[in-house]
Design a protein that fits this description.
By secondary structure, the protein is mainly α. It has ten helices and five strands; from the N terminus they run αββααβββααααααα. It has a three-stranded mixed beta sheet with strand order 3-5-4. It has a two-stranded antiparallel sheet with strand order 1-2. The radius of gyration is 18 Å and the shape is globular. The protein binds zinc ion (ZN).
Length: 255
């Protein structure tokens, strides 16, 4: 009985750490504080910038910075330190670190043909950041134990390991473990609203994700933002279901 009440107390403590995803209102259990999360992001960003070739292509950098700034403004998170980097790599990919560090590979532009399509990808990545999916994943993975250690330590190899696991960053930063399908759908949804709010037509997303779906079917490693099952037709159906709300936000943004 004593054990049971102890467990109950622990559960009550844990559930006070509940927060909600923006836009969708989904309940989340997050045991990592925003400032710890920011620090995780900064540390990982520094590592990636040291080990990955930065692109100096002026056109791509300007495009990513411009679209990124508009999406970030729409996200309306003054505490985030948004950074948008372009990395030279043939991979069709983009990803985000906690606190708003977004990376886009030059290979992405084999599929992304204009600013509107880029807005769909960046919306999705920014959504992962503001919905704190990394922190939520850490909390889910290591409920209790590791989260406590994170609270106690600011750095160290174990900490780094956890960041890598949480963000699915492999040893060479090229290998991504998929987020759960739930996170991907949520990033799609929030991302679509953000793109719409930033003044990009959300209807472009349907054709764009179809294009990505076809492309990722032929790829050995599908990109982060297509990391749910490549033949996932449900993704398109869900986008269609939320499209009216996205279009309403888009119309509002153009007034
Ligand atoms: Zn994603």
């Amino acid at each position: 009985m004593i054990l049971r009440s102890l467990i109950l107390t622990a559960l009550i403590f844990v559930f006070t750490a509940c927060s909600h995803s923006p836009y969708t209102g989904r309940k989340q259990l997050i045991l990592v504080s925003p400032s710890q999360e920011m620090q995780m992001g900064l540390q990982a960003e520094r590592q990636i910038l040291t080990h990955q070739p930065i692109s100096h292509n002026p056109r791509l950098n300007a495009m990513v910075r411009n679209v990124g700034a508009r999406i970030a403004r729409a996200a309306n998170k003054p505490n985030y330190h948004w950074e948008f980097h372009v990395i030279n790599s043939n991979q069709v990919n983009a990803f985000c670190l906690p606190g708003g560090k977004i990376f886009v590979y030059t290979g992405l532009f084999k599929v992304v043909k204009n600013e509107n399509e880029l807005a769909i990808v960046l919306g999705h990545e920014v959504a992962h950041a503001i919905a704190r999916h990394g922190a939520e994943r850490v909390s889910m993975m290591e409920l209790g134990d590791i989260a406590k250690q994170v609270a106690q330590r600011a750095a160290g190899p174990k900490y780094q390991n956890m960041i890598n696991q949480a963000y699915g960053i492999g040893a060479n930063y090229g290998i991504f473990l998929p987020y759960s399908r739930k996170f991907e759908y949520e990033a799609d949804e929030i991302g679509l609203y953000l793109a719409a709010k930033a003044g990009y037509d959300p209807r472009v997303a349907i054709e764009f994700w179809n294009k990505m779906r076809q492309m990722s079917q032929s790829m050995r490693k599908p990109p982060e933002f297509a990391s749910t099952h490549p033949s996932d037709i449900h993704r398109i159906q869900r986008l269609q279901a939320i499209m009216p709300r996205a279009v309403a936000i888009y119309n509002q943004s153009r007034r």
